[in-house]
Design brief:
The chain has 14 helices and 15 strands. It is of the alpha+beta class. It folds into three domains: 115 residues, PAS domain (Beta-Lactamase, 2-Layer Sandwich), CATH 3.30.450.20; 113 residues, PAS domain (Beta-Lactamase, 2-Layer Sandwich); 154 residues, Reverse transcriptase/Diguanylate cyclase domain (Alpha-Beta Plaits). The chain is rod-shaped.
Length: 422
């Protein structure tokens, strides 16, 4: 039975279904570069009609390659696929970026090149914007006095650092290539062990509540030094339930050192470097409380340099100041690390002796008295000191203890100076 649809009709249907109604822009070229057929989508892409394109050669609109290069490419197309990027000029003169996939085939005895063309202008624009944004972020990151970072905890508990800015190299003394691979162990091992539990506690709290993370901790730099780091970051929950923190790490070592210096200045006598009266009072209260709690003895010494006013009057305050510094240094060299040495005022000083009874305290005072008396002072020759010694009584206040040691010192002076009294 003869077919009701002839071959020409079948061909028309196939071209219509496969070519004209394709979602892609398509053009079929002859090997000489002329257009065999272009579908409406490709014509619209370039702003021509299909009939107009039928009178062109491919080099009439392709501007990336020369006519000679295009001729050579057309001659080498076979039945294997090829892909390349190019640029094409529209009818209105504007330029579009395009991605071309080609495949050669013989159709009705003629070598044809079937081309699928995709307009990539928007994609290229987006890629360029992303590249520019990335460069901008990298430039910003290099100006940040620290390091930008991301830290992720996956649902299975796996941890990683997806990103570190270059600032981390200086922060931790690592080479930038050491940060690739985001090995958590290499980074976290730099935390001082005593700081690690608190960091983990804050991390878990931030993960469970998605609350801001803030911590100050210490790391060991590659050069062996200890650096203080401040970390601030904000967590987000990702689609796969991972938690990722994005934040900043700052080296606050200088700030911590400055704060420590200010703290020391606030509790230290400016001339002698020992505890000032305010700090000594605080420590006295603390040691009394501890002695009462653990039922341990506590002794207090008070000493005063004999006839010190005459030193200042005769030799001047600079010489007097040097004498005070020398005396406090001598005392420091002859007491324990747990003992507390403070300047009470003028040439009066206190020494607090934890876990020490009265007899031992008297021995300490006598040793200090002899050490001071035996030391040769520049310009002055010798200086002597008088000592008062007391032991804390049950339930005694710091005020009462200080008053009693002052009375003991007064008695030492009344009885001739350069002596120890209780």
């Amino acid at each position: 039975m003869k077919s009701l649809i002839d071959d020409e009709t079948i061909e028309t249907i196939l071209w219509t279904v496969l070519f004209e109604q394709s979602g892609d822009a398509m053009v079929v070229l002859r090997q000489d570069g002329s257009v065999y057929r272009a579908n409406q989508r490709y014509a619209d892409m370039l702003g021509y009609t299909p009939e107009e394109l039928g009178s062109f050669h491919v080099w009439d609109w392709d501007i990336r390659f020369s006519e000679q290069e295009l001729r050579q490419m057309l001659l080498t197309v076979d039945n294997s696929s090829a892909h390349f990027d190019t640029r094409q000029r529209r009818k209105d003169g504007t330029i579009t970026d395009a991605e071309v996939s080609t495949n050669g085939a013989i159709y009705k005895g003629e070598n044809l090149i079937f081309c699928i063309v995709r307009d990539t202008t928007e994609r290229k624009y987006t890629e360029e914007r992303l590249r520019q944004n990335k460069e901008l972020l990298e430039r910003i990151a290099t100006q940040v006095p620290g390091a930008l970072y991301q830290y992720r905890i996956a649902p299975d508990g796996t941890r990683s650092f997806p990103y570190f800015s270059e600032g981390f190299a200086a922060l931790g003394g690592l080479a930038q290539e050491e940060l690739s691979g985001t090995d958590v162990d290499d980074i976290m091992s730099r935390l001082l062990p005593e700081d690690a539990p608190e960091i983990e506690r804050k991390t878990q709290e931030s993960a469970s509540t998605l609350s801001h993370f803030h911590a100050e901790f210490r790391i060991r730099h590659n050069d062996g030094s200890i650096r203080w780091i401040e970390c601030r970051s904000t967590p987000e929950k990702e689609a796969d339930s991972s938690i990722i923190w994005t934040g900043i790490l700052l080296d606050i070592t200088q700030r911590i050192q400055a704060e420590e210096q200010v703290r020391i200045m606030a509790i230290t006598d400016g001339l002698t470097g020992i505890k000032n009266r305010q700090e000594f009072d605080r420590l006295l209260e603390h040691e009394i409380e501890r002695a009462n709690r653990y039922h341990t003895p506590l002794a207090l010494l008070m000493y005063d340099l004999d006839h010190f006013k005459q030193v200042n009057d005769r030799y001047g305050h600079n010489t007097g100041d040097m004498a005070l510094k020398t005396v406090t240094s001598l005392v420091n060299d002859n007491i324990r690390g747990i003992d507390i040495h403070g300047r009470w005022g003028g040439e009066e000083f206190m020494v607090l002796l934890p876990q020490t009874g009265l007899d031992t305290a008297m021995d300490v005072a006598e040793k200090l008295r002899r050490t001071i008396a035996a030391h040769p002072f520049d310009k002055l020759g010798s200086i002597t000191a008088s000592f008062g010694v007391v032991e804390l009584a049950p339930h005694e206040s710091s005020k009462s203890l200080a008053q009693r040691v002052d009375e003991a010192l007064y008695r030492a002076k009344e009885l001739g100076r350069n002596r120890v009294e209780v």
